[in-house]
Specification:
This protein has 5 helices and no strands. The chain is an all-alpha fold. It has a domain at 1-13 and 56-129: Four Helix Bundle (Hemerythrin (Met), subunit A), CATH 1.20.120.
């Protein structure tokens, strides 16, 4: 019974984190479904659509977002691997606490690397915005961080919130 409970717990943990892996295809190229999802949820409804970007800014933003996805994908894959390894540890009727703590440290390290990449991207975005756009973007960012503006996938970065208007 305990083994089934742990399996259910590990599966639930995996499924909770699963949406973060839907950003691009495993081979690093975008599939048609991912491109359609991105276009539907990001280009029209994201915070960037509300900034009034010039064509030059849009091109720079697309390049930054492409670079962001490419940078995050290997970390997401590795994070998924670590979660599965953690689930394996928990499947043991007597899991090794040190092994669990070590795996959690590894996962936190990956999250830290992802956060550094997201922070770098945030400042790159600021570098191409004019003062009015920076203000709007700052308000969106503050709302996101404080939980005032929601997202259909928690933990995602720029352009992943639902349009609530």
């Amino acid at each position: 019974m305990k083994k089934w409970f742990l399996l259910a717990l590990a599966t639930a943990c995996f499924l909770i984190q699963r949406p973060s892996f839907a950003q691009s295809a495993p081979n690093g190229t975008d599939s048609p479904g991912v491109r359609q999802h991105f276009k539907a949820h990001h280009e029209r409804k994201g915070p960037f659509s509300k900034l009034g970007l010039t064509d030059d800014q849009k091109n720079k933003m697309k390049s930054m977002m492409s670079q962001l996805r490419q940078s995050l994908e290997p970390l997401r894959i590795e994070e998924k691997k670590k979660r599965l390894e953690l689930a394996e540890i928990y499947l043991n009727p007597n899991p090794d606490r040190q092994a669990v703590e070590q795996k959690l440290q590894e996962m936190n390290g990956l999250r830290g690397q992802k956060q550094e990449i997201l922070t770098d991207t945030h400042f790159k975005i600021l570098s191409i915005l004019n003062p009015e756009q920076k203000q709007k973007f700052a308000q969106w960012t503050a709302g996101r961080l404080s939980g005032d503006e929601g997202s259909h996938h928690r933990g995602h970065s720029f352009g992943h919130e639902r349009d609530r208007s």
